[in-house]
Amino acid sequence: MTDDNKPGVRENGLLAAARDLPREVTPERDLWPEIQARLGERGQEAAPASEPRAKAWPIRFAAAAALVAATALVTLSLVERPAPGTAGLVSPEPAMFGAGYDLGAKHQLVRANLSEDLARHLEALPPETAAVVERNLAQIRAAVAEINQALEKDPGNILLEQLLMAAYQDEMEVLSNVNRMAGAVPSRNEI
Amino acid sequence: MKRMMLSLTLLVACYAVAAESIDEIADVHPRGEVEVSNVAGTVTVEGWDRDQVKVGGELGRGAERLEFRADGRHTLVKVIYPKSSRRSGGTDLVIRVPVGSRLSVNAVSADIEVTGVEGAQRLQSVSGNVTTEARGEDVRIETVSGDLSLRGHGDPVLVSITTVSGDVDLRDLQGEVNVQSVTGDVDLDSRELERLRIRTTNGDVEARAGMTDRGSIEMEAINGDLRLDILGAVDAEFDIETFNGSIRNDFGPEPRRKSQYQPGTTLRFTEGEGNGRVRIKTLNGGITLRGD
User: Fold this and answer.
1) Is residue A48 within 8 Å of A32, Cβ to Cβ?
2) In terms of pLDDT, which residue wins out, A83 or B109?
3) What is the pLDDT of residues B132-184, one digit of tens each?
4) What was the pLDDT predicted at A72?
5) Is the pLDDT of residue A84 over 50?
6) Strand B74-80, strand B33-38: pairing
7) Which of A45, A127, A175, B257 has its CA 20 to 30 A from that of A150?
8) Domain check: are A34 and A59 in the same one?
């Protein structure tokens, strides 16, 4: 996953884009005479009374379009956003092994799937227990990052490689164990 | 006022009905499997010398009923909750099982306490505490945040413990012990272990352990501090290493820096014939090794 595709980055980008949309758009030329001509005589009669409203119409149309676009962008970002507090679980950093090596697509796929399952299963757990799992998983991932940094400076260090492999195993075991335990828990609306 | 009194009476009546006593008993196989499921409350299991399973206790508010089924070698004790209910009071189960039963308990926040059961045990509670004894067959305990306590009774057993943040307390065990935690601390005191393996990310470990002939001890941590007091005669090869932590060794040679330019300290030596093996590794955690 590239940095741009990370949920937080992507969402911030979308919101920033929505904020940057113009609140009103002034047409390059005055469109009203043409519209008025097409409306014909009835339009000509109505024009004097509704002139201010008629002049405001393109502006309102543009503002509405901007609002729809902004809403769509925000909705898109919300629909794709994982449950609160689970963003880091669903999208862990790629599983690296020092500089330039990763644990492969298969490992990454299993890890991502287990992480997604976990984010879903945590909803069945009491909030404080779910928070414990998230904090502890974050600690394992922080340890992985720290070992990886050390391994970049000291490639081939056997101790670091052993500890890194063990940390990845711990991560997978926490993911699979908590998934299994939480999977056996009646969901909150069943308790 | 009358309406209020009526409501109060109904409320008390509902509570009285909901807090229902449990009293079930069935003949079972002396070495059958007993499976227990309870979300909240407590599960207390005691081994007894009858070929019967007896269930007592009190059904919690919100619990629908107790499912109790004994089919020869398999007994099920399960607290059933209505699907529409969001909250429930804890159910307290007191279960007596034949001493030789194999026991499986699943809980969410319920505490589990087991005494006098000699068959294999598989105990799991997400946030409840687990207390049990090892009496001859394998014991496997898993929690997320619940603490665990296990005491041995002189028989060699295989113990597997997995916890995320629960603290682990182990006493008087023999045989093989495997512990894995993320932030939970581990305290172990056992004189005759064939194999001990403890792995933690950020938990601290204090182990007072004796090794059998050709026994092995492996401890590993990222940031946790590891302390090992070896009980009794020491006859092992030692391989101790840390990347950023310190090593304190009360017997054997001094630890040495691996490189002048890189972090890392190692300590390798042999005590006695070197039949056993002690391996301790950390990233940042300190290591303390002491004799009896």
Assistant:
1) no
2) B109
3) 999 989 999 999 999 999 999 989 999 999 999 999 999 999 999 999 999 99
4) 42
5) no
6) parallel
7) A175
8) yes
Give the domain extent around A182: 87-190
Virtual CA dihedral for A166, B171, B279, B202, nearest 10 degrees? 40
Same domain, A169 and A184: yes
Question: Average pLDDT, whole number, for chain B?
Answer: 91
Number of domains forming the structure of chain A: 2
pLDDT range class, residue A74, cuts 50, 70, 90: very low
Give the structural domain span for B71. 19-116
B-interface mutation test, from A159, A161, A172, most B Cβ less than 10 A away: A159
d(CA B38, CA B91): 7
Distance from CA of A56 to the nearest CA of B (A): 53
Residues of B in contact with A167 (CB under 8 A): 201, 222
Q: Answer yes or no: is pLDDT of A191 > 50.
A: no
- How many Å apart are CA A114 and CA B10, to the nearest integer? 47
Domain-ending residue, one of A80, A113, A129: A80
Residues 6+ apart with CB under 8 A from B250: B288, B289, B290, B291
Considering only the beta carbons, identify the residue of B127, B180, B183 that sits closest to A139. Answer: B183
- Claim to verify: residue A91 and residue A167 sit in the same structural domain: yes
Chain A residues lying within 8 Å of B144, measured CB to CB? 125, 129, 132-133, 178, 181
Residue B219 lies in a domain: no
Question: Is residue B25 a part of any domain in this protein?
Answer: yes
- In chain A, which residues have their Cβ closer than 8 Å to the Cβ of B282? 163
Determine, yes or no, domain membership for B229: no
In this predicted model, what pLDDT tens digit does every residue of B27-47 receive, in sequence order?
Answer: 999 999 999 999 999 999 999
| A91 & A72 share domain | no
Task: Tell me how many domains chain B contains.
Answer: 1
